[in-house]
Hints:
By secondary structure, this protein is an alpha/beta fold. It has one domain (about 1-280): P-loop containing nucleotide triphosphate hydrolases (Rossmann fold). It has helices at about 35-40, 60-70, 90-95, 115-120, 130-145, 155-160, 170-180, 180-185, 195-200, 200-210, 220-225, 230-235, 265-280; strands at about 1-5, 15-20, 20-25, 50-55, 100-105, 120-125, 190-195. The strands form two sheets. Strands 5-4-6-7 form a four-stranded parallel beta sheet. Strands 1-2-3 form a three-stranded antiparallel beta sheet. The longest helix has 14 residues, at about 130-145. The chain is globular. The chain starts with a strand and ends in a 12-residue tail after the last helix. The structure holds adenosine-3'-5'-diphosphate (A3P). Adenosine-3'-5'-diphosphate (A3P) binds near residues 132 and 139. Adenosine-3'-5'-diphosphate binds near residues 233 and 254.
Amino acid sequence: MSVVKIPDAGGDNIRFLEVDGHLYPKDPFVVSPVDVIKGISDLPIREDDVLVCAYPKCGTHWVWEMARLLLSSDTETVIIKEKFMLEFIGNDILEKFPSPRVFNTHCLVKQLPRGVIEKKCKIIYILRNPKDMAVSFFHHHKKIKSYAYDGKWENYFPLLLDGKVDFGSFFTYLKDWAAIGTTHPDLPILTLVYEDLKEDPLPNIKKLANFLNAEKSEEFYLKVKELTNFNKMKATKGKFITLPDGSSIMYRKGEVGEWKHYFTVAQNELFDRTYKENMADCHIKFRYTL
Length: 290
Ligand code: A3P
């Protein structure tokens, strides 16, 4: 296992795990993280497995819970998405879960389990305004102990733009996933947008149910909306991964447009310029406010 320390622009280090040239979180809960990560491509996949795919901090917890509720109809059990995360959990555990399983991952398309491509499993892909993602990832890196990071936003910002974080550059990630319609035209993919979900969850929950062939009553959809509301999820699931003071790490603000409180005018210009340079041939329309 290779643990690397990457300095931000102010010299504060962030600690990651490096596997085959890619950076991952150095998760303290996994006994043999390198084996788990190296095993992803060969993971035995079932035809009815579903994958929730997103760059970190784009709403994976939220959408995973919606999909889980719709497919299981189980509104009682409180279970966290980390138990179904391909980078953290190996087949010895995943194989014990009954079908249909809902996995989640921050992998690039080429890193997905081969079986997902072969069996044409359903994929839910989430997009979020990358400026809010950046702010969210900053707090994530500061709060989770295994990163051992205590840097400042202004020094973190260039590091993120440079893609020197776990799961790599978000430019690479966005381009990789934007090309999936061309690279894998047969794969069933539903794209959900964080800002659309915030604006009006219900039609998106119904769209998701339709995609998963898991149509339910209006009453059930309202229940899913209620259970996946930010405050509700924070109160239930937020207790599992916390700071020493008990506050939730994964459920922070859940808002659209928080980047405006962090980005300086110069940072915003640099971001837009860097985005343009990196994404010249890739047209993704983001909503930066509601
Ligand atoms: P913020 O840090 O901006 O609050 P991921 O699940 O991919 O790690 O993304 C985490 C982000 O989604 C965090 O954003 C988190 O607060 C937000 N989030 C989690 N659950 C949510 C929900 N039910 N509704 C809205 N946002 C949610």
